[in-house]
Write a structure and sequence with these properties.
1 helix; alpha+beta; about 80 residues; elongated
Length: about 80
């Protein structure tokens, strides 16, 4: 079963992304959304682990794309600054 969540992009900032572990659950926070899993729910933990793995891969790819775009912008700016007229 595929689950989805909707997160308002304006709601997600570096300060609103994180996780918290308590005696009873592990919770991922994305903006105002909570993705909790009970530490006693084996199936829930396994599913959350799969979600975490998928998110990790997606975030790593996204970060790579962002870095490449920034490098491209930097190269274009460098080329403009050093262009001879």
């Amino acid at each position: 079963m595929v689950k989805s969540i909707t997160v308002d992009y304006d709601d997600v900032t570096p300060q609103t992304v994180g996780h918290r572990l308590t005696d009873s659950e592990a919770v991922l926070h994305l903006g105002s959304r909570r993705l909790p899993v009970a530490l006693t729910d084996r199936a829930g933990l396994m599913e959350a682990l799969q979600v975490a793995d998928a998110m990790s891969a997606a975030v790593l790819s996204w970060r790579g794309d962002l870095v490449a775009a920034l490098q491209k912008l930097d190269a274009a700016e460098y080329a403009r600054e050093n262009a001879t007229t």
